[in-house]
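re: ur question from yesterday

yeah so i grabbed the chain u mentioned. its 192 aa long if i counted rite. heres the sequnce exactly as i have it in my notes:
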Amino acid sequence: MYLQNMKKLFFLLLLSMSTIGYAQEKSAARQFWENLKKHCGKSYEGSISAGAGNDDFSNKKLTMHVRSCEENTIRIPFFVGENKSRTWVLTFANDRISLKHDHRHEDGSEDKVTQYGGTSTNAGLPEIQFFPADQQTSSLLPNASTNVWWITLDKDLFSYNLRRIGSDRLFTVKFDLSKTIDTPSAPWGWKD
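ran it thru and got these structure tokens back, copy pasting raw so excuse formatting
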């Protein structure tokens, strides 16, 4: 009887150790998500490092505000000067992250070009996630069918990037995470 109980105890111990080890392992997507959530409520100033020829962005203050962090949704308004029409919406489901672009008019109504983006095809890395254009994007913006967006994130830097495969189109904006700035007012369509 003693030997039988010891075998059961040993088996349960091994089982619990393997379960604990499994529970402690987090996927790269989960690590990225948790690291991004650490910035909730904070705002940062950015600068264009590629694609600077875009007149809509030239000589304007670029601000990101990790404004809303729910369990599976993070909303990051991205302001270009006084234009508060853009919000990056990230969602986490099934160990994949999706990126959508929510565009609004000043009155809060949706722009006709909104909710485009894509979903990661794998868990990525803790410091980078890729989002190839999805079918909704392809239907809404046929020229964007070959778009790939990616976000990099480490302790000092957040970058938002866009590359249109098969073209020269590249856009990168980098935000210095070592320096927070004052929280801006609400983006268009939001209430403080």
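noticed a couple things. The chain is about 20% helix and 40% strand. also The longest helix spans residues 2-24.
anyway ttyl
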